[in-house]
Design goal:
The complex is a heterodimer of chains A (339) and B (330). By secondary structure, chain A is α/β, with parallel strands linked by helices. Chain A has 13 helices and 14 strands. The two termini of chain B are 31 Å apart. The chains are: A alpha/beta (339), B alpha/beta (330).
């Protein structure tokens, strides 16, 4: 076990994969000489050289397209998108090209590329550099997608993403890059895709979260004396762990989902619908989704903090669910806004 | 129809000019027949045919190795046939049958043949340009002497992927040949309405790479130009942009009668029809004797007739094909 920050865990996973597999290459804006704007590729250029670690122009459509071609012809490219919003100019390459190559070749070609992108609010970057955008891609057959929640998650999920024969989008909450934790490196530290992880045991309610919201859900659960919450880190958003989540909710009888993204059409709606359809008669309360409002991410510090679910708010929402047996309105209804 | 047939078809085009002529005749007849099948209501969906552009297709196929990956557009039947794919697997795909090259789940715009070097063809304008650069990156990183070929139309020269792909290939000196089939029309719009310069080859200058205009109606010139650019790429000389001046005889897609074309334009281009001029040249060189061309026409027609029977006897695309290849197994 090594204590490291999440950005160092990302670099460690990249380095270990590059050491084991000469076909792994890394490129993106400022990833080589500068070591990445968030230092997630620090030291890779020095160790692996300019053929395998490359700075690109500001050219997302170009270098993600290159990742598709490189992956289809045998490399395992890892391309970095500095802020997830920059994927907007290149979404075709991920959703419509990479995600379809296996299908369109009757399995003859695979596209083992990894797209890493920093996501999320909380650092005062304004509404064009603070979204999470996972829901752009949760509706696109052919892709896999994971969301990191800390250093071990970063190391383990990224290694699996690079090894996977399919295109995998790795979403990295920017606010977590500086957070430290113990990391098991090497083969034992690898986390398989498609499996959720229980990060806290509890009996009264199952809280499913992902990314930066895992920490929020944990803190909310720790704060309550009145009920005990099981907290699940979904880890892989596509394909998500249906069996793991259903069996967890079957045991507690209550499901709360915490998402750092707008309310409408979030991935939590899919989980709510799936679990609701299967456990209708067994649920002891309605499924509760705790999300951001349907607004662009605001800049002002207090507003930005209020925009995202925080531990106090999550505790309060779960309190109300357990006391009343009904799903409480989100905070913005109290401000006269529609749900 | 098997693998041997496909590779043999490729070898023939690479080795022999008369075989190239025959393939051009096959492409023309195939595309004419595809339009006929649509008109007769025997196929659903859409299709984009490439009559008039046959010399570009055989030029690429004759110059490239099967290990040189090619990205191609949705107007890809001709290039697929030129590379060695059979009429059966392409028509099968167009008609949504199990015998199709992708099992009938992809359609006319999406052909693919890994052994022949054809990546899944692109129905998004320009997308194949950076993807070809990516295939070239693999050759460069691994140190092989393979190259990649990115084929696109004149319409793609105005989309970001063109500029980003050429720029990346240039700064990294990648072994890739970009081939613009300038057939004078981007979908329904004549090139001078969408593009402020006459020669797209000029755009290569922005990226510091050679931009070469090629007579896309002359298969001898297309083969020579692609071969030379591939030699440059393989020997570390970096990318080249080839602008093949050609002409699309049909409309953009099935529904387009191309009534926007100025009067006399088609006739002017048809005077330099690539098949007619190549036949005359081969005859004058003594490579085609009297009656040989008629024999080729008959052979091609017979193969196509048989191919249609084979395809129509093939079962429709299966549910297994639809679900079978969404994710590669871990």
């Amino acid at each position: 076990m090594v204590r490291m920050r999440m950005n160092q865990a990302v670099a460690a996973a990249l380095g270990d994969e590059m050491r084991e597999d000469p076909d792994v290459v890394v490129f993106g804006e400022d990833v080589a000489v500068a070591g990445g704007p968030f230092k997630t590729s620090d030291g890779l250029l020095e160790e692996f050289g300019p053929s395998r670690v490359r700075d690109t122009p500001i050219s997302e459509m170009g270098f993600l397209g290159m990742a598709v071609g490189a992956a289809a012809s045998g490399l395992r490219p890892v391309a970095e998108i500095m802020f997830i919003e920059f994927l907007g100019v290149a979404l075709d390459m991920v959703v419509t090209e990479a995600g379809k190559f296996h299908f369109l070749s009757r399995g003859a070609f695979t596209c083992p590329m990894t797209v890493r992108a920093s996501i999320g609010a909380g650092l005062g970057f304004g509404c064009q550099h603070s979204q999470t955008m996972e829901n752009w891609m949760s509706h696109a057959p052919g892709l896999k997608m994971v969301m990191l929640s800390g250093p071990q998650s970063a190391y383990g999920l990224l290694r699996s993403a690079i090894r996977d024969p399919n295109p995998v989008v790795v979403l990295e909450p920017r606010a977590l890059y500086g957070g430290r934790g113990q990391v098991t490196t090497g083969a034992d530290g690898i986390i398989p895709l498609g499996e959720a992880r229980r990060v806290r045991e509890g009996d009264d309610v199952t809280v499913v979260s992902a990314g930066a919201m895992v920490k929020v859900a944990l803190a909310a659960a720790e704060a309550s004396q009145d009920w005990s919450a099981e907290v699940i880190d979904l880890q892989t958003l596509i394909p998500w762990d249906r069996d793991g989540v259903v069996s967890a909710v079957r045991r507690t009888g209550r499901l709360v989902i915490v998402e750092e993204s707008p309310y409408t059409s979030g991935w939590g709606t899919e989980i709510a619908a799936y679990v609701g359809a299967r456990l209708f008669g067994e649920l002891r309360a309605p499924v509760l989704r705790i999300t951001c409002p349907d607004v662009p991410v605001p800049f002002g510090r207090e507003l930005e903090q209020r925009y995202m679910p925080n531990p106090g708010y999550v505790t309060d929402q779960i309190d109300q669910l357990l006391v009343t047996g009904r799903a409480p309105d989100p905070w913005w209804v109290g401000e006269g806004r529609s749900a | 129809m098997g693998d041997a047939d496909r590779m043999e078809r490729r070898r023939a085009v690479a080795a022999d000019r008369v075989a190239r002529y025959e393939r051009m005749v096959e492409i023309r007849a195939f595309e004419d027949r595809v339009q006929g099948l649509f008109a007769e209501g025997r196929v659903h969906g859409t299709t984009h045919t490439a009559q008039g552009q046959e010399a570009v297709a055989v030029g690429i196929a004759a110059a490239a190795r099967p290990t040189d990956l090619v990205t191609c557009t949705y107007r890809g039947h001709g290039i697929g046939l030129a590379l060695g794919m059979t009429p059966e697997v392409i028509l099968g795909e167009i008609m949504g049958r199990e015998i199709g090259c992708v099992g009938g789940i992809a359609g006319s715009m999406h052909l693919c043949d890994r052994e022949l070097g054809l990546l899944p063809t692109f129905a998004i304008i320009g997308a194949g340009i950076p993807v070809a650069a990516g295939a070239a990156l693999t050759a460069q990183v691994r140190g092989t002497d393979d190259a990649a070929i990115g084929v696109f139309g004149d319409g793609a020269a105005n989309i970001g992927a063109f500029h980003e792909g050429l720029n990346l290939a240039a700064i990294w000196n990648l072994p890739v040949v970009f081939i613009c089939e300038n057939n004078q029309y981007g979908e329904y719009s004549r090139i001078d309405l969408t593009t402020p310069i006459e020669d797209l080859a000029d755009r290569a200058a922005s990226y510091g790479i050679p931009g070469i205009i090629v007579d896309g109606q002359d298969p001898d010139q297309t083969v020579e130009a692609v071969s030379a650019a591939l030699d440059v790429a393989r020997s570390g000389g970096g990318p080249t942009l080839l602008e093949m001046k050609t002409y699309r005889y049909a409309g953009h897609s099935r529904a387009d009668k191309a009534e926007y074309r100025p009067e006399g334009e088609f006739e002017r281009w048809y005077e330099r029809d690539p098949i007619n001029t190549f036949r005359a040249r081969l005859e004058s060189e003594g490579l085609l004797a009297a009656g040989d061309a008629d024999g080729i026409d008959e052979r091609v027609a017979a193969r196509l007739k048989a191919a249609i029977e084979v395809v129509e006897a093939s079962p429709p695309a299966t549910v297994d094909a639809m679900f079978g290849n969404i994710y590669a197994p871990v």
